[in-house]
Amino acid sequence: GAASRAMIVTILWRIEGCPVVNYAMDFEDVAAEQWYTEAIRWAASEKIVEGYGDGRFGTDNPITREQLAAILYRYEQKNGGGFKGLWMYRMDYVDLADVSDWAYEAMCWMNMNGIVEGRPGKILDPKGTASRVEAAAMIQRYCELTK
Predict the structure, then answer these.
(1) Cα radius of gyration (the chain)
(2) pTM given for the model
């Protein structure tokens, strides 16, 4: 099955030790006292997630590969990592133009570090849904790289 946006944020929150934050969320679709509520509150307070920009987070929405990369990259930046200063990284995928502007830096860093890999045929598939297995592999590779 597909990994949801709430699942990914909850995994990172648990990696962090389930911190409690005092932060007023503006996401109208994040219900109080659900298994994901405090995780999303924490991630929003740390600027790891921003939602869709229309007041929605999309808790149950399947996460795309570029969304997952962006969330992991913002988590990396929160911890002091990521690209510093001027940078350039060349990715050679036939669908590179499909990467959203907001996800490009994240996809480059994740690909450069072997966390996000392409699919057969030199396809990056940034808008494709990340399965639970794929998301787990990306998070494992990220943790092995950074911990």
Answers:
(1) 15
(2) 0.94
